[in-house]
Fold each of these.
Amino acid sequence: MSSPKKNEKQTVIQDVLEKPSSRRSFLKGASIAMAAGSAALATGCMATGDTTTSEEMKLRWQEYFKKHYRLMTAEEKKETVKRLERLAKIQNDLDVQIGTDPPIENVLYGYAFNISRCEGFMECVAACVKENNLDRKTNTQYIRIFEMEPGKLDPSTGDGQFYHKVPVENKFYMGVQCFHCENAPCIKACPTKATWREPDGIVVVDYNWCIGCRYCQAACPYFGRRFNWSQGEVPKEELTTKQHYLGNRRRPKGKMEKCTFCIQRTRKGRLPACVEACPTGSRVFGNLLDPESEIRFVLEHKKVFRMKENIGTEPKFWYFID
Amino acid sequence: MKKQIIPFAIPGLSLLLMLLLTSFALANEKSFLDTIKKTVKPFDARSVKKVRPVTRKTVLALEEYRGGSFRVLARKQEIKRYKCSNCHGEKPVLVKQGFELTHGNVIINHGRAGNELSCIDCHSEDDRDFLEDKKGRKIDFDHSYKLCGQCHFRQKRDWLGGAHGKRVSNWAGERVIYNCASCHNPHSPRFSKRFPATYSVPLN
């Protein structure tokens, strides 16, 4: 009974050993063969034959040895997405759909924030937490709203932790999040090239390639990056199942994460969750390469400024005044 | 004589060259903003696939913006007891009756303090199914921006361009935007004070 299985195992190992391969692919192949072998052992011992554990083990091994997102072929992207979806099903009984939508041609995303219109209702923050499956245990938030004294424009002078009835007279509110810089210091600081700028301007993180060194967090002049302290905990009924590989999918523990302009939405033509949720319409989002877009109207007709413009990071996030 | 001129000319020339080179270098060091400003060809937002269709009822706006026609959220079906002519018919409605029956909840907080607007500043006196601007033109409830814009013309200009208000769910696809009354209560247009939806935790 065990002989065909043993033969199969042997051929897998032989294949791995005989095929010309790199160190990485050899390790991957060898480990999968080992996993398969141990699974065969396990099924041999256990009468019931718990197949899910061996499947999970195999998937996790394959996940561990996958490539950097930018080096993956379309086929490999499809495979990893399939694995992740299957793992979500096995581990948490969740039906998620992970997309790998590429950037849309002739699109460069830009964002504008109306500081004279924002009233500090923080609906954007709540929507962001929900949309991006942020960890509820450590209370991670990508957006911060500062209550500011008139005349001040540096958020560090404002109150970032207010909780009282808003708006307060003679105060204004300023939102801060990842600004998706053109010359992003975080990208330069990353030692593993786990973060990069996509052609549509979104600065993304390959969560599997990040080693959690937090250099990017130190390099960011806008405090736009967050460290993932623990395995994210999201109530099952609140989980956003429409995900993107570079966006709101389940993030491994100990990695960096950040605002991605809701890549899972914006690459499908939708608005980011914060823009959609804003009750006062202070947030404007659109394509900078479209002269008819709303964001271009703001840039052309409003008094705009960017934060710390002198340091040359060229953020794609403008503040404007009515 | 000529030999004397050349040593003088060389520093001058090199200075000129240096200036030229630096100016070229500066010109080459372009910001992405220059590329943006140079794009004049509009992006065909309708070409984006997978745009989620807007399920709420919309109407074609009577005005245009830079990209041509657009749609606004319809308003009429959200007004309770529309049509108004069901009550405001031939028979006059007494103020007392009206207060008890229908509009007791309406608190007018629109206009300068001490000089608040009254009902017929916006509603048509003869035909209650319509709004009416200061020139006596009847305005449909779905196109309230025509009425609001006569005082709030700056906001209307921004709204048309996209700096005030917002789109419904998509940045791509057909432009569908919120109507004035989708966000503002026309009787009390300021947003009322309330507690924030969530709170911020300390970052460190």
Note: The longest helix of chain B spans residues 2-28.
Amino acid sequence: MVQNYETRYECHHHDVLVVGAGGAGLRAAIEASAQGLSVGLVCKSLLGKAHTVMAEGGVAAAMANVDGEDGWQTHFKDTMHGGKFLNNWRMAQIHAQESPDRIRELERWGAVFDRTESGKILQRPFGGHTYRRLCHVGDHTGLELIRTLQDKGVHSGMDVYMEATITHLLMDNGRIAGAFGYWRESGRFIVFSAKTVILATGGIGKAYSVTSNSWEYTADGHAAAYRVGAELIDMEFVQFHPTGMVWPNGVKGLLITEAVRGEGGQLTNSEGERFMKNVDPKRMELSTRDIVAKAIYREVKEGRGSPHGGVFLDISHRGAEFIKKKLPGMYRQLLEFADVDITKGPMEVGPTTHYTMGGLRVEADSAQTTVPGLFACGEVAAGMHGANRLGGNSLSDLLVFGRRAGIGAADYIRQNPGVPVIRDEDVDAAARELITPFEQENGENPYELHRELQTMMQAKVGIVRQEADLQSALTDLQGLAERARRVSVQGSRQFNTAWHLAIDLGSMILASQAVAHCALQRQESRGGHTRLDHEGYNDYWARHNSTVRQENGDMRIGVSELPQMPEELAKLFEEAV
Amino acid sequence: MTPESELTTSESTQPIATFLVFRGSAEEPQGFQEFKVPVEEGMVVLDAVHYIQQHFAPDLAVRWNCKAAKCGSCSAEVNGKPSLMCKTRMDALPLDEPVRVSPLKAFPLTRDLVTDVSWNYEQNKRITPFTPKDENTDAWNVRQEDVDRVQEFRRCIECFLCQDVCHVVRDHDQKDAFVGPRFLVRLASLEMHPMDAADRIPFIKEEAGSGLCNITKCCTEVCPEHIHITDNAIIPLKERVVDRYYDPVLWFLRKLRGKA
């Protein structure tokens, strides 16, 4: 049958379509271009504005520039310990082994890291890392990383589609065939045909009310891939960063980089006590994020919080000059935004939604999802960080697996030379679905629905969970999903933010359902998932990942056994004891 | 959707600010629309714009991402001054008169507060990218003192406020002859990189139009990252151009070596 969608929609053809232009997407697009492929890179915002710019503290790589004893084995062990051994061991191994090369490569592309006395790349300590391991540029490492990749990318021959949103993946007989979306500016639809698609769409943090994430973090990739049959794993593991500002209101949720603790910042409660000594006396403030976040939560719950419901974080004892050099962005930002001078006194901080450990199941070496031709890297992919991510491991993750996804896509195209065909009816169905909010009158307000979703998720599927809350959350989500189908928007399709949110809502609700279901299923507390009614680790759950997939239109929740670590890697942990 | 309940409860305790927000596109009618917004402690202009979106004008077009002055997306003009909306505090504005929020003037209007900034992305493509002196893959040995200068330029978040305020771009619309302050900063970051091998001086003079800058320092004043754009980036580049093209001794030496 002749397909005529090309006569009705704007169409672009590529070997590889990369969705998302943060660090992972850019790195994947650079690699696929280097392999000689035609690459399209779609970004929801302007190029270079993705969430990677928010990363502050640094990028983890066992370069041993400061602590000579460091090596990939220690980085691997730290990552597995941090992830409470729920990580995909092979991903953690590849990541630890390849990160140093990715940093040196970045330097070759123009990145300018802070230096040691002897002229090497400087590395700083961070929570859960045995050695000083985070390569950094003051406290704006993410900006350095994305700008370097952006400048490399625009000279690599790829086509960049700025301010476009992908809403649907298109299939041909079980393999990926392309994607459907719209230009934010005009509201016009676009069809991309592609032999492979690499998802690098980030996390789901905008489903929560207290969050360090921007409007873009709406689970687009999770939802689109789920709908074409991809499997999600470990969705219950949401990282709450321990130190978001709780006050003043204008900066509520604003992230205070872990580098503040890395450089000596101390956490105290209302009684002036460094409470981390009761939880992790050895590592204190440099314990892993899940442990610090829960400790803060407990102090506040038990009445030892700061006036605005957080705890105090103080770096002022390091002196003004040191702070301005090491944390220049943080210093200026808090002074200008909040009248808080961190060289003179403490900040009030508490946990803020930060990172999604769960996501698409991928093959460790190739980054391919369970759908042929569909790849995923960065935050939307799962496995690398297990139940809890170490600070600094995200920037290195996106470099290592962004590159691997680019190579994986190239290999796939070599092995599957055919050109998949997009079907008219799939394109038309996607277009009809997107138009619906304009055709419904007096329906729900997307902003109001979003606010309800965020408040509910924060209260019932937040930092600590229990069965009754999770059951109630699932009922609420059912109701929200139905109301989201009745949402209506006015005006034209041109840069209509209410319409954009109406579309994103469906993805956020779907991902939230996956989180709540998995959280209900996992009857233990581990890393980013804490159950008041199931405290401590459980042997069965120590050996299982949670799984989510679509079956006959329903969300099917299950488990799969953790991949078995080979003998030589398992031995590394015996030696440590 | 109506905020009545919130307004009645807040009216007694909270001050109300009047906003005049630019609405319209090239095809639609244009003008300022008035909105009343309750002011909370610690509020910034972007919070007010979000309030307007959520309560009165759901289709109000605005760009923003991080709300933390790190991404440079929410650039607009607040009371005529190019500003990041996420960084413009309400308590720093005179609230006895309306707060005017309008799109960047130097770029074509898309809709409401959104402008077409694609010209900026085209400029970056014209610049010869970083070209390493040393191709081997060992880690480089570079002193902190040698990169301090470049690191200042690399703090740029590409908000394009400097482009918007620059007379050459804004009032004289010489976009074909001048890349603007942002890309002179980018050029400076490459030219002063201790490990870069490319020569961009002819480009800086002929195509980037460094001579068109008349050092009014407006760009430096609006930079949210406090980069000393004029003093540390543009003036040194101008000096390099002068040294290359107008220094009689160097000119003579080049003639001798046959490198005009």
Note: The radius of gyration of chain A is 23 Å.
